[in-house]
Amino acid sequence: MAARRARRLLGSLCIALLFAQTAPTGAAARSGSRSLLTESLVRTFTPFYFLVEPLDALAVRGASVIMNCSAQCETPPRIEWKKDGSFLNLVSDDRRQLLPDGSLLINSVVHSKHNKPDEGYYQCVATVDNLGTIVSRTAKLTVAGLPRFTSQPEPTSVPRGGSAVLGCEVTAELAPLLRWERERQPLPPGPRVLQLPGGALLLTNASDSDAGLYRCALDAGGTPKYSDEAELKVLPDAEEPPRLALLRAPSSLSRVPGQSALLPCVPAASPPALLRWTRNGQELTTDGSGRFQLLPGGVLQIRDVAEADAGTFTCIVESGNDTLEAQAELAVQVPPTFLRRPANIYAHESMDIVFECEVTGKPPPTVKWVKNGDVVIPSDYFKIVKEHNLQVLGLVKSDEGFYQCIAENDVGNAQAGAQLIILDLDVAIPTLPPTSLTSATNDHLAPATAGPLPSAPRDVVATLVSTRFIRLTWRPPASDPQGDNLTYSIFYTKEGINRERVENTSRPGETQVMIQNLMPETVYVFRVVAQNRHGPGESSAPLKVATQPEVQLPGPAPNIRAFSSSPTSVTVTWETPLSGNGDIQNYKLYYMEKGQHTEQDVDVAGLWHTVTGLKKFTEYSFRVVAYNKHGPGVSTHDVVVRTLSDVPSAPPQNLTLEVRNSKSILLQWQPPPAGTQSGQITGYKIRYRKVSRKSDVTESVGGTQLSQLIEGLERGTEYSFRVAAMTINGTGPATEWVSAETFESDLDESRVPEVPSSLHVRPLVTSIVVSWTPPENQDVVVRGYAIGYGIGSPHAQTIKVDYKQRYYTIENLDPSSHYVITLKAFNNVGEGIPLYESAVTRPHSDTSEVDLFVINAPYTPVPDPSPMMPPVGVQASILSHDTIRITWADNSLPKNQKITDARFYTVRWKTNIPANTKYKTANATTLSYLVTGLKPNTLYEFSVMVTKGRRSSTWSMTAHGTTFELVPTSPPKDVTVVSKEGKPRTIIVNWQPPSEANGKITGYIIYYSTDVNAEIHDWVIEPVVGNRLTHQIQELTLDTPYFFKIQARNSKGMGPMSEAVQFRTPKAESSDKMPNDQASGSAGKGSRPMDLGPDYKPPLGGSNSPHGSPTSPLDSNMLLVIIVSVGVITIVIVVIVAVFCTRRTTSHQKKKRAACKSVNGSHKYKGNSKDVKPPDLWIHHERLELKPIDKSPDPNPIMTDTPIPRNSQDITPVDNSMDSNIHQRRNSYRGHESEDSMSTLAGRRGMRPKMMMPFDSQPPQQSVRNTPSTDTMPAASAGPGAELPEAEGPFLPAEEEPQGPPTAHVRPSHPLKSFAVPAVPSAGGPFDPALPSTPLLSQQAPGHPLHAVKTASIGTLGRTRPPMPVVVPSAPEVQETTRMLEDSESSYEPDELTKEMAHLEGLMKDLNAITTA
User: Fold this and answer.
1) Is the peptide bond preceding residue 363 cis, with omega within 30 degrees of 0?
2) CA angle 518, 524, 530 (to 5 degrees)
3) 340, 346, 355, 637, 1385 from 383: Cα distances, Å
4) Is the peptide bond before 271 cis (omega within 30 degrees of 0)?
5) CA 494 to chain centre
6) What is the reported pTM?
7) What does the alpha-carbon distance between residue 937 and residue 960 come to, in Å, rounded to a whole number?
8) pLDDT tens digit string along 100-131?
9) What's the pLDDT tens digit per position in 1377-1394?
């Protein structure tokens, strides 16, 4: 038994061992068989193409014609033919039959005027069952029409040795069938006989044997048709050479590369003329060595025409002194040729592919695609991209087959094809991803290995749905919760359509994707498949998502055109938009001057409009926007047109005269203002005359010349000049007459001037006045004077002045300094001999003599004893953002203000900025000047002076002008984006204004997008007001890069955009509270503690700091000291006030003790006086009379401010513990409480304005230091003797704002009412601002260790109202004051009040001294 049991155990062990050894071998075998099976499932591409394709053919009526076609494939294809796009039924056709090789034979071509069944376009179609279909190129069959001559030969004569042309014209298709006969015999070809392209016959070097009867014959099938006969006579040599002429001039023609071209240019000349040819202005070599050859008679032959031969050919004929030219255009048209042919593609279902096809030709060819013989119509899934490529989206099995790219232009067509094979999903694509796979589908093409596949992704949801894109997110499959190595494919399709598309994630582990280019208001079905290294796993459940609807707006209006109809009008035409939902209601035409930034618009009902009132010869841009019931559509592109030119509307500017010598005067001017030139200035017309005569002389100069030297004048004679600008349209207005007198004698400028005859200096504190006289020798020209100066050396600085000047003030010098001054006269030859002088400036203390001649100007003539009167009425007229016209009047001129002498005016200007003392100047000889080149939106000041000879005026009164605004020319700068703490979906954008704002910034526009390359109209915009430099944007997507741009605007329009700033939002929101969401135990720094609620428990350790850190022992001790100090001070104040109260007379107490009435007098207070709330009171300190506030009919009267210095204190809104329905609010209060209350009382003794409890509804003039407020409490203000209006219902706090300014404060009521206290300091003396201002009345929520005080309330007792805190300056201690007000309404005499106040102030002063010590 034991042995048998042992053998059985050993056998079992062997079997197990055998299985263990054979299992891997079996797995390997299965894997190998699977690999072989996979390879066997990959189908190969099948060669299928045309060996011969049909060509264009010309047939003769009644003859036969063959259209050749032959296709190659492993399986013999079935050949069919199409004519004009329709299949031919060749089975029952007697005249047309299919030849064995696939060619088409047409017998007895039929062609008549009304029946042309054979003429048309033929196409060969080859089909292989279960494989596909291909089509050939299209061939045109032309049938020659009825023989007809468009012109007949005419009798002609030719001199012996000359050339003759016999015309015989036929249509283009019959020209190849034309031939010539002489004496009814075929004309043998020869070097002297040439048939021209149109059919005419050229005969050169005529001899007597050439004479006879000629006719042309047309062999168009059947019996030839003959033209009329014409006799050619050959004349003996002519005695006089005939006039040079062309018997046949070249005509323009078009050729295809490879053809030949003939350009005739046959001269009639004897002796033979010299003839040459040029192309595009360059002479051709026509000796036959190249492709160009000059045939007898002057015909240019071009063999093997190339595309580069296109151009203008010119025939130049010269005979004796005569020359003739004739031109013709040669156009070379190129049939389509393929630069890149479509390539065969392997793909899987749901992939996106692109067939590439790049063609060229002249004219540029059009491309269409054919799939298995049928034209592909573009749709959502078949799209033409990049002009010629075919994109197929979401492949399905039926997309397999042959795709052909067919290119066509005017001179031919061509086709090229490729095959698409769709493999099963478990069959790997055998090669690397071809370039024709799109980026969305070229992933996951590696062959899979055996192993576990992932399960379906979980929780597929659409987190963002727009009109044209959807964002999907999901969780990794349960089989792989981490999912770090998983990639995902998202399959999607329109609902009801079986064609799926696929989009892949960009990196492993990514669990979201953006599906773009969707259709609006369409339901899509999505599913997600995870894939690991073993292959794709299970698909998620389908998810249906509908995109948002999109308003259907009109598309752009096509074919917008604009042309100028006059110098001031432009007509714009367009057509109805092709797209858009609903009828077009109207159009809006926008137009704008080129270079400007403000568009104007006009509403138009039709399809054209003429815009009038435009500037002459100015470029304008136009665009059109169509409107339907949904609003404006897409704008057209801008079309630019320039208005027609006209004569200038203004004269040239700043005409000046310079007498050069006794016979010449130099004129200089500037063009008319830019807006008045009305065209291109072609020249200037100068008119001049003697003043004593009325007849003038005209002289013209070129357009760019702005000066002219008028010579040949008489000596010592006064001449008048005027200048006018010219355009091609005529001459514009001329300037006013300007006069100048020539010299009596000529001056010499062949040498430098001599030394000036004298030099005088007059030193002042910071300036030196220099005066001089000209050189004694007046025969040498002096152009000006050079003044050099410096401390110890005259070469430090040099100033040049005009030759008319005799004085100059050197300014900005150092006091008590020794300066050396040099003066030299100069002309165009050089500088003369210098004259030296020295001077010491006066010290600062020397004020004995004031310099009367120091004026801020480049040079300042010292007024003569009888100076000229300065110009008056200076006005600055703003013309644009950089131009101002200055005009003035001169009282020293006659009433007509006509200038007849040689005076000139100097205009100076500068910006009206205190730090800017630098002037710019310019001279003018008229009563106006155009200042250009100014800065936009800048205030300038202008003044004018007049100079005549040595006399000059002072500067006129200044005129001011601010240039117009211009759109900002720079973007906002320093753009930064930060995330808001605690709110990862919210970001804060900060920026600075543009450096070149060119006006007041009225707003900003923030653009942001997730795609930096998106069109700007696809970005989201956020408008911001102009005074803000920060903005929050909320509800952004987490872990998403955003791009931000900012654009500033002013009243003139929008400026440029800033560069895009990228910011990526955080990945996820924090699960716990952010710091700004946590409770803050202290209310300091202006933060607002959140409402902790009734269940809130302080953290262990007694700490209520934001971070829960325990309070340090030092802080605890300090807090204890503060609490004890406050308690002691409060007790002292209560005792003092109690003593004060006991001193009141009992008679007054009895007289005034009664039930206090309510504000409106309809209710009485009930209960103990301690529980009664005091009424709102005016406190008049001069009488110390506590009165209730009467009702005021005016809900918001205006209080009168007092000139006495005051301190406006803020109202600090706090929680209301009396009304549980009101939202609890806590005040953030930080400051010195009791100590400051005492110290400020002593500090305010010098100023006691009347205290008022009603609240001002306006914001405070000055905020209280250390008491920031977070709430806004609206209240009405009341005047003396007035009462606050009754509120209807509970008084609720206003909506809270982050940092709103306090709105309630206390103002004195009347400028004459103040505290009447003995020994008061001066009324105007303000109290010490260093003393802190502390509100004496405030409220705190329960549970806070601050003093609880009572508040003044508004309204009747019968209604529940929140208390209104009041801040009163210089009041006694709070609790005692409140109790005093509650006890009774007491009245005091003024004397008693004065004594009581004096006593109280003494106690306060002693108490203050004690607490300070």
Assistant:
1) yes
2) 100
3) 19, 19, 11, 24, 93
4) yes
5) 37
6) 0.40
7) 13
8) 888 999 888 888 777 788 889 999 999 998 88
9) 344 444 444 444 556 667
